[in-house]
Amino acid sequence: MKKLLLFMHVSLDGFVAGPNGEMDWIIADEGIFDLASTRTNEADTALYGRVTYQMMDSYWPTAADQPGASKHDIEHSAWYNSVDKVVMSKSMKGKDLKRTSVISDNLGQRINEIKRGKGKNIIMFGSPGAAHSLMKEDLIDRYWLFVNPILLGKGIPLFGNIEQITKLKLHSSQTFSFGVVGLYYEK
């Protein structure tokens, strides 16, 4: 059975974005990009909320074609263009998109159908609102959290409105440059 992996940057005080969705505080370096590349190679489905999907789809399809594209841009662009994408959105219902399906209802049933399908894992980058919906239905199997050395004080929390206890086991941790700590948890 496929696993659903969540990749998320988080502040030390538990926020994934500022009050207006700001993410300019996130630190990412080649080490984090290399780890992300390793994990994406283990996945053949990308899962997003609508806002993150639109942001990703405006950049990644042609990122490798840009002058001076980095190794990460080239690799992630190729991966993005080769995988199936699933968007959790009520406003995009009925849209016809290349290699992309939209989930507008029956979230638990639809995600579990994807998990039971053939192939590799499902990976989700960002999308805090969608992540909250997935957490509420206990659908996330693995958490890759990149704790950034900053206190935001307010913003969008990583664990908003958790209604049930979910026990996690720390599988591994890794320190990156600039004080970012990667924590990998499994259910």
Biggest beta-sheet profile: 8 strands, mixed
Helices and strands, in order, run as: EEHEHHEEHEHEEEE
The beta-strand count equals 10
Catalogue the unreliable spans: none
State the helicity in percent bands.
25-40%
Q: How confident overall, as mean pLDDT?
A: 92
CATH fold assignment of the largest domain: Dihydrofolate Reductase, subunit A
Rg to the nearest angstrom? 16 Å
Number of helices: 5
User: How many separate domains make up the residues?
Assistant: 2
Structural overview:
This protein is an alpha/beta fold and 187 residues long. The longest helix is centred in the middle third of the chain and has 12 residues, at 71-82. It folds into 2 domains: 18-42 and 136-187, Dihydrofolate Reductase, subunit A, CATH 3.40.430; 43-120, Dihydrofolate Reductase, subunit A. The model has no long low-confidence stretch (mean pLDDT 92). The chain has helices spanning 30-40, 50-59, 71-82, 107-116, 128-136; strands at residues 4-11, 15-17, 43-49, 84-88, 100-103, 121-125, 142-148, 156-157, 169-175, 181-186. The chain is 28% helix and 29% strand. The chain contains 5 helices and 10 strands; from the N terminus they run ββαβααββαβαββββ.
Please outline what is shown here.
The chain has helices spanning 30-40, 50-59, 71-82, 107-116, 128-136, and strands at 4-11, 15-17, 43-49, 84-88, 100-103, 121-125, 142-148, 156-157, 169-175, 181-186.
What key phrases describe this protein's structure?
Dihydrofolate Reductase, subunit A; eight-stranded mixed sheet; 10 strands; globular
